[in-house]
Design brief:
homodimer, alpha/beta, Nucleotidyltransferase, domain 5, about 30% helix
């Protein structure tokens, strides 16, 4: 078999996008397709049509198909239960949920993962567990993986298994504050100000991660001309992400390396924030979702 | 002169409402009018028309008129500068800004008050200084006044002067989260749950006022059926107000009495929260704005 023959079709199907991969037996991505067909934009009952249109001929010949992300949620195509952490590739492989399409193809849906905090509150992920498994690879020891975004995830991985994680609503909180409070009124588009971003981080750190009062400084500082209106959005972003770091760093092992597992534009901001907290941090390789899907499929023994 | 003759016309003119008072020489409110003509709903150049329609014949005969609130802001009728704290009735009286209407009536606009936090960030109020002056009355010693709302104010008053204050964006943050994030999707109208509200307060306290992770529990708890969807809004409210208390109590004198200076429905929630933090708290009398306007006018020597 040629090493770049397809051994697996992987789907990373989230809220706002669908990423489809043809993956070789050694985990290499042979081909990728990305569309805006996230679950929010697909009408009820329409998932199989999208699947056929995007994956199409790839799936002929009975290749195994594994799908992760919000596609497995109540509002997705086929709901899967949550595994309880700790969870690694073998646990996730054991929890795959088989589903047969009307067209007769079998898809294996990845389960979500849940955990409970020290105070018993549940926390959940769908899709991120696959990215983390991909980013973690064969690494031993304890690593902290950070997935920035609307709902940022901070996961602790020990010897390849997710032992616990916490979700921070930073991205969504930032957008709601910017677009739906008075803070947006003194914001003007600007070229992006690293200084203002770091000033926001510093403020969050000086307030030990408590933001309800500090947020008002995103109004008073431009009101008094102490930051420019073109810098105010960056300042607010720094404030929120800085607060996330104060809170998140307080709950992860002190010496563990930190890895930002993201393709997003946010990764750069998270790296800068980590540096401002004196925590050396690196980014993961690209295509962590594809690698994760491949590692789960391999653990399940279903690679062709 | 009859004790209930009018000696002063007071206007508490804010963002969403206008409250007008006929006030006697001893501070008693003789008559009050309230309309929805907040500065947000009055077209440019329209303030004098609203003034004439609402205050009308009251203002004939040259009675002194004092006005406070957002009406003195850049988007109001006549902008006043900020006094820098400490500020009491005499300071505010000294900062009154005279304005003559086209109709020839003189209005004295109350200045806003500003202060700077330990880290130099500016903070501001317009209108609340008048309510605080009214609520403080002749009391000696140090008292903490709390004005719940869209932007809650916590002010420290010593011997009748506002020595410093902080603004917490709790009300606006709560509304933005409820209406413009995923948290609203698992909320259903309910009869109001004190237990859920206090559960939110407890969560905020256990997280030492850091909310970015705790907020996600307002999604996961109803998702797992651990609070009812009809209770989720109360839980979120408790979480945000509880976080405000953690942060605010950390910056006020430990033994000072706390007074909630508010007519709003929120006062009850703030009292409950204070009790859950073990801080005995009382509410101020009604009409604190009218009393404050009267105290400022008296300090200015302009009562008829």
């Amino acid at each position: 078999m040629h090493s770049h023959d397809t051994a697996l079709i992987g789907l990373d199907w989230g809220t706002t996008s669908l990423r489809a991969y043809r993956i070789a037996a050694d985990g290499a991505v042979v081909e990728r397709r990305e569309t805006g067909d996230g679950i929010l934009s697909v009408p009820t009952g329409g998932f199989e049509d999208v699947f056929r249109a995007v994956v199409g001929a790839w799936a002929e010949g009975g290749l195994p198909i594994v799908a992760s992300g919000m596609i497995t949620s109540r509002n997705g195509w086929h709901e899967t239960p949550y595994l309880t952490a700790p969870a690694g590739p073998a646990d996730i492989a054991g929890g795959l949920v088989r589903y047969r399409t009307h067209g007769g193809q079998e898809i294996r849906f990845v389960p979500g993962v849940m955990t409970r905090g020290a105070d018993g509150s549940p926390d959940v992920m769908r899709g991120e567990e696959t990215q983390i498994v991909g980013a973690a690879g064969e690494a031993d020891g304890t690593i902290v993986f950070v997935l920035p975004g609307t709902h940022s995830k901070w996961a602790v991985v020990s010897d390849g298994r997710i032992t616990g994680f916490r979700t921070f609503m930073s991205g969504e909180v930032y957008a709601a504050l910017r677009d739906h409070t008075i803070l947006g009124r003194l914001m003007q588009p600007g070229p992006g100000s690293e200084a203002a971003f770091l000033k926001g981080c510093d403020k969050a750190r000086s307030r030990d991660g408590r933001i309800l009062n500090a947020l008002f400084s995103a109004r008073t500082l431009p009101l008094f001309g102490e930051i420019a209106e073109t810098e105010t959005a960056d300042y607010l972003s720094g404030l929120v992400i800085g607060a996330e770091f104060v809170e998140a760093l307080g709950g992860v092992p002190e010496k563990a390396p930190i890895v930002i597992a993201s393709r997003s534009d946010l990764a750069e901001r998270y790296l800068r924030t980590a540096a401002s907290f004196g925590r050396p941090t690196r980014t993961a390789a690209d295509d962590t979702a594809a690698t994760g899907l491949w590692r789960i499929a391999r653990a399940a023994g279903i690679l062709t």
